[in-house]
Amino acid sequence: MKTILPTEVQQKLEAGEAINLIDVREVAEVEAGHIPGVIHIPLNLLEFRMHELDKKTPYIMVCRSGGRSGQATAFLEAQGFDITNMTGGMLAWTGEVK
Question: Is there a domain that residue 97 lies in?
């Protein structure tokens, strides 16, 4: 499983890189604060909404601490997607929060 540190994600965003972040937390968690521009797909709906994603597009998975996004990464990777897990999740995020 590929992983990326929150600081690396932040550097990519600050450099203006177009990255695709998917937040797999629950609605209330995302509403309480999220990285601007994320795609919100709760983990329990991922299986039913993965058709919205493009297998040619790389995605970075985000959750609260890295556990749920790790599950999502493993699941989507097995389906043939290019997925990376942001280790530490939002607990380790020091960048902008909306």
Answer: no
